Amino acid sequence: MWPSDGVVFDRGCTACPRLARYLAEGRKQYPHYYCAPVAPFGDANARLILVGLAAGFHGANATGRPFTGDHAGVLLYQTLHRFGFASRPVSVSIDDGLELFDCRITNSVKCVPPQNKPTSTEIRTCNRYLAAELAQAPRQVVLLALGSIAHGAVLRALSLPPARYKFAHAAEFRLPGGQVLLDSYHCSRYNTQTRRLTTAMFEAVFARARSLLDAMD
Ligand code: SF4
Predict the structure, then answer these.
(1) From atom 6 of ligand 1, which residue's Cα is the shortest distance away?
(2) Helix (H, G, I), strand (E, B), or coil: what is residue 172?
(3) Tens-place pLDDT, residues 16-53
(4) CA distances (Å), 55 to each of 38, 96, 135, in order?
(5) Å from CA of 169 to ligand 1 middle
(6) Is residue 3 domain-resident?
(7) What is the extent of the structural domain holding 93?
(8) Residue 9 covered by a domain
(9) Is the sign of the CA dihedral 193, 205, 149, 95 positive or negative?
(10) Which residues line ligand 1 (CB under 6 A)?
């Protein structure tokens, strides 16, 4: 479990009043759920950093691990395993022994928002943690943004102008700090069931991430 150091992650953070209230309601309704800010998962020195949107109510918010427990994680962990970034193709629970290799998963907003929609203020408020996380990351990393909100959160965390880096599926940007930013549509249930994001499209992005990392060796 990532330490709650108050810099990269704070398990007791209540800086977003609407989200803190929502978590308190969730704890009452589902006492066995995790219901707190969700820590990044994976290697602190990883060179592939996946950035998602926010915790899902019955997923990360229930289990305490990003993309675990709901539909969004199915394709993600399957793909991570296929490209050698995960020890198994399925993430079941925070204590299932799954390991990530040279990879970390984090979210733009650490708490679950109602209807999976954080406000722009909440995205800005939580960006302090992503900024601290990216500041501590190795210089040469691949930042894989899952969706346009994550893309924007990465740019904000790195103080880069959004007008210069437009989100598009499979877009790739060399950033001034040495990182590569890769974009993908989010692997949400909606996107996969409508085939806006197919398995082949998602795998192509991970194949590119793998080849970028291999070139950095
Ligand atoms: S979303 Fe982020 S900033 Fe807002 S309360 Fe949760 S951890 Fe704190």
Answers:
(1) 111
(2) strand
(3) 999 999 999 999 999 999 999 999 999 989 999 999 99
(4) 7, 19, 22
(5) 27
(6) no
(7) 17-216
(8) no
(9) positive
(10) 13-16, 19-20, 37, 109-111, 122, 125-126
